[in-house]
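Thread title: Can someone regenerate the structure for this chain?

I was given the following input by a collaborator and told the matching structure tokens would be attached. They weren't. Posting the sequence so someone can regenerate them.
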Amino acid sequence: MASLTTMTARATMRRRRLAFGAMLAVLVLGGALALVRTDLGEAAHPAPTAPVRTPAGGRSTPTPAEPSAQMPAAWLAWITGSLPPGTTAEAAATPQLGTTVVVAGDTRWMTASHDAGGSVVDRPTPPYAIPIDAFSVDPAAYAPFVSPDVRDQVTATLRSGKAVLGASSAKLRHLGVGGSMTFASRTIRVGAVVPDPEVGWSEMLVSRSIGRSLGIVDDRYLLAQPPTQMTLLRFDAIMRHLIPDTPIRTEPPGGSTYMRIASGVNPPIVMKGIFGEFSAYPQSADPAYLTVDPQWYDAHIVTRTVPVLGSVTCNRTLFPALIGALTDVEDAGLGDELHVYSGCYAARTVARRPTAPPSQHAYGAAIDINAPENPYGAVPTMDMRIVRIFQRWGFLWGGRFLTPDGMHFEYGAPPRYAGGG
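Best answer:
Regenerated them for you:
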């Protein structure tokens, strides 16, 4: 009995050391990230780290991140997928909403970029290209939602047919004013670089006319500045009247770190900065699935054995938090509640929509567990004790997404704390 007790104690200590080591690794990774929580407690979001470039040649050139400014106060509404046709006109004709703008956005595939002197910065080998989270707006309608200190610059740039880049995108792209981005046969010159919130944390903002020429066609979210005092309940009711019979997410001014579509999760520019940017191309049989550059895959995607689940394939950056969370699940006696490992790395787009951004699974930064009991869109059955453990390790849980995805845990931020169930 004494021998068994000793062995048990040693095993427990080994697990605790593993969890502690994992926590330290994640904290080192996230040293430059600030933990921010939404007012609804739905998610914790990091401020962007210095972007890590790995699309061509595997080079890495991190640079300090600029402090972010805040856009003028605006109310946000979005749905899964694209807003119905006519939303722009109906919102403009709704006096209670006041000033409104609808922002379109789609993933566009960049085939090359050049600096202001014309030198090549990125040129993936065909058929590979770099997925860019691109937004488009009507310049006049968007102007009231831009900070006064950059409003004229943003508006003039959009009207001139040039692109506005967020600071993080400009750093990742190694582009400034005068640089250019090429999408197949269409080249767009960079006319301004502004703080990320000014462009909705997109990688590129252009006018509606330029957006149409690039294939940006889906209206993604609405911003509003009501003329009188507004409550979230009232704003939500107005939007549900405009877009009936559709699940909708609304946020008050500053209600989320990312005031854009999918406001509760990290946008592509943040994911690229943490997990590395890849080049890829949509597969002809199903463009929602991607063929990823094998050089990026070999540098970032690995298979390891983790507690409870066994062998999993994820981004190497995710493993410290994943191992820490699963170790705590095991130590809390909840391992038997995780019945099925349903995948981590999967090269596809969000919700398998061809024009959507790459899924967090495409970065190897999300894991699905107990999928048969938690199908996409169904009421989640995941044990909430497990959810809380994963959240302490910085994961976002899909059970709180607009369309519930109870099987899904994805990277959100460095861990709040670790240990204990």
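The first helix runs from residue 2 to 29.
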